[in-house]
Every structure is written in structure tokens, then in C-alpha cells.
Specification:
By secondary structure, the chain is an all-beta fold. It has no helices and 3 strands. A hairpin with a 5-residue loop joins strand 1 and strand 2. The relative contact order is 0.34. The mean pLDDT is 97.
């Protein structure tokens, strides 16, 4: 599963970890995050994230 980085603050969404503090279970791909998902650090929406090229 691909990681995604917030273009504004650099926070990385890692699907292996999820975002348990905000109700996102480990193993949840970025594509399955709710449409109203926001970066937990700066509050921007999913449209402000880019796929991490590894």
C-alpha cells in the first residue's frame, strides 16, 4: 500500500499504521479514507496529499 504525504506540512499517512487517534484503523488504504479526512497536523483535505514515490 502506498504512503501519502501532506503537501502543506509534510505529515505522512502510512496505511500500515493508519491514524488510530482519529478512528482510521491500521491497514486502511488512502483511497478508502473518508472524503472529509483532514491532515491531523494542519487540517487540509485529502486533495492536498501526494503519493510518496519510493
Amino acid at each position: 500500500m502506498d504512503k501519502y504525504v501532506c503537501d502543506v506540512c509534510g505529515w505522512v499517512y502510512d496505511p500500515a499504521v493508519g491514524d488510530p487517534d482519529n478512528g482510521i484503523a491500521p491497514g486502511t488504504p488512502f483511497s478508502e479514507l473518508p472524503d472529509d479526512f483532514e491532515c491531523p497536523l494542519c487540517g487540509v483535505g485529502k486533495d492536498q496529499f501526494s503519493k510518496v514515490e519510493e
